[in-house]
Amino acid sequence: MEERIDESVLGDCFTSAIALTESGVPHVPTRYILPPSQRPMLGPSIGTDTITLPVVDLSLLHDPLLRPRVVHEIEIACKEFGFFQIINHGISSSVVKDALDAATRFFDLPVEEKMLLVSDNVHKPVRYGTSLNHSTDKVHYWRDFIKHYSHPLSKWINLWPSNPPCYKEKVGKYAEETHVLHKQLIEAISDSLGLEKSYLQEEIEESSQVMAVNCYPACPEPEIALGMPPHSDFSSLTILLQSSQGLQIMDSNNKWVCVPYIEGALIVQLGDQVEVMSNGIYKSVIHRVTLNKDFKRFSFASLHSLPMHKKISPAPQLVNENKPAAYGEFSFSDFLDYISRNDITQQRFIDTLKKNNS
């Protein structure tokens, strides 16, 4: 049997998942191995064979006669899963392809070039990293990422990677278009809750957008590691582009369900801000990322939230004597403070906001 890699050679230094894959390691290093109870069930027995995940044709939102039907579909998806896929969403296939191309080129850069952007500081507007936070994670996760603030684009784009030369233009175009899409989605979700569709209009105009561009390299032992641990996003919505299957969501029976890859579709995940705003009518979706032995997977997670310091709380229209406020208020900044001090694999941030009456 082949021996596992000698971790004393690596020490505590930064080692990216891409570098490990490229070095040809036959096994994942010990620090990536999950306890047996947390390992993914991979194989033909798991999947979407017993469950149909919602797919919404977003183009129908623009038809006044059909809009109520689509809003109802979104309501059902939000209540049952906190998740749905969207087709005919208005972002062209060329914009999507260009963004994926730019991401591929970035992760193909020499490690020294990417290390210019490396940081453990979760408050940094642009940072490259691996795992969740390689310096504090007890178990490491098999992913590399570049995260950057993306709205308003003119404020942040100069801080983005200058290499590859196409990165700012191609990823910038995709970021702008997802911001527009987020506005349409949040209006429909507000509508589905019985709120004015303009309920968060002002906050959306000034909103925060964080683009997390992820690379999950081929992993020699995908059955004992993960690309991302179970978590929910702090955001109002996350709009996710994936290059292949790998995302799993937890359903209402606490079972893991594989999200199929649909050519041209985007994934919409409800985040903690919508759970709080809806006073728990909708729940943020718990999800994780599994790995593949044969190829790398890319994803763009566009996390949309209220402005950095703007607090969100349950909508007053959804609070009454019978349904008191079930959550305290919070901001994106509060979330960043929490994750800089706490391990989100041990306790979800939203659980710290829940009141005893929930």
TrEMBL record:
State which residue ranges cross the membrane. Answer: none
The protein's GO terms of the molecular function aspect are: metal ion binding; oxidoreductase activity
Alphabetical list of Pfam families matching this protein: 2OG-FeII_Oxy, DIOX_N
Please state the protein's primary subcellular location. Answer: cytoplasm
Under the heading InterPro entries, the entry gives:
DIOX_N, IPNS-like_FE2OG_OXY, IPNS-like_sf, Oxoglu/Fe-dep_dioxygenase_dom, Plant_2OG-oxidoreductases
Keyword Cytoplasm assigned = yes
Q: Where in the cell is it found?
A: Cytoplasm; Nucleus
Q: Which domain of life is it from?
A: Eukaryota
Query: Is Glycosyltransferase given among the entry's keywords?
Result: no
Q: Which UniProt keywords apply?
A: Cytoplasm, Iron, Metal-binding, Nucleus, Oxidoreductase
Q: Which GO terms describe its cellular component?
A: cytoplasm; nucleus
Instruction: Please state every residue range assigned to the domain named Fe2OG dioxygenase.
Output: 206-306
Free-text function comment from the UniProt entry: Involved in the regulation of shoot development and salicylic acid (SA) homeostasis.
UniProt family annotation: Belongs to the iron/ascorbate-dependent oxidoreductase family.
- Matching PANTHER family: OXOGLUTARATE/IRON-DEPENDENT DIOXYGENASE
Q: What is the protein name for this chain?
A: Fe2OG dioxygenase domain-containing protein
Q: Which organism is it from?
A: Eutrema salsugineum (Saltwater cress)
* Phylogenetic lineage: Eukaryota, Viridiplantae, Streptophyta, Embryophyta, Tracheophyta
